[in-house]
Write a structure and sequence with these properties.
Order of helices and strands: EHHHHHEHEHHEHEHE
Strand content: 5-15%
Structural class: alpha/beta
Length: about 240
């Protein structure tokens, strides 16, 4: 039987943890860029659109705040596109058009319950999205009071050790008192474990390969849903 964890702080990833809709459904693809430019009388040629979409995934990997604006600026330069607005302003509009995957009702309920019980609850994730957009997504789910740590704000992304060090600094407790809950074996299991934190994987029961990889990467346990999480935690000491 898996022992319960004596922790005071819970860090949650976002994609496939708090949000279950596929990330590609909220991708800032070329269609959003073309629409944003068309509203200003600027045409995005088919070759430029293709160039943008082909490079988008690679340019997003660093997960820093200027990634999308840098890509748009590069496309403008390569294809001689004259836009009346700076690329950074266009990038903000593209993100707004793309939207953000919402946190599920179950995630919202679980995180609010844990916070009410006295656990310190944080959300930490890799994303190029502006912090204000992800913060609004959490607020719309009733989680606006939770600390949010995202790579686009920090300028560094998991699995870089600086990302985890920043999270631990925000936690202000010993790593052994922190559990990281997520779905990515490298970012949410191996990285936190290397920094002394406990980890819990959140993966569906039919994701056999991913569940095995999570265990190999140091997951304390693999959960099929957030409803199982409270049973993995020892109750906090009663407040005086």
């Amino acid at each position: 039987m898996t022992r319960s964890l004596a922790v005071t702080t819970i860090v949650f990833g976002y994609d496939h943890t708090l949000a279950t809709e596929p990330d590609h459904a909220y991708r800032p693809h070329g269609g959003h860029l073309r629409t944003a430019l068309a509203a200003r009388g600027v045409d995005l040629p088919a070759q430029a659109l293709s160039d943008y979409d082909q490079r988008l995934v690679v340019w997003q990997r660093p997960a820093h705040a200027t990634a999308l604006a840098d890509l748009i600026e590069m496309v403008f330069t390569r294809h001689n596109i004259d836009c009346p607005l700076p690329a950074a302003d266009i990038a903000v509009e593209v993100w707004e058009r793309a939207g953000d995957a919402p946190a599920t009702p179950q995630a919202a309920y679980t995180l609010a319950l844990l916070a009410e019980q006295g656990y310190q609850v944080l959300v930490a994730a890799n994303t190029c999205r502006p912090k204000v957009q992800r913060a609004k997504t959490l607020a719309d789910a009733g989680l606006g009071d939770l600390p949010l740590i995202i790579s686009s704000q920090l300028g560094v992304a998991a699995p870089d050790q600086a990302f985890y060090e920043h999270v631990l600094h925000r936690c202000s407790v010993a790593p052994s008192r922190v559990v990281w809950v997520g779905a990515d074996p490298i970012h949410d299991m191996a990285g936190p474990r290397a920094h002394g934190m406990h980890t819990l994987a959140l993966l569906p029961t039919d994701a056999t390969v991913e569940r095995q990889q999570a265990v190999r990467c140091g997951a304390h346990a693999v959960l099929a849903g957030l409803t199982e999480l409270p049973d993995m935690l020892l109750p906090l000491p009663a407040r005086p």
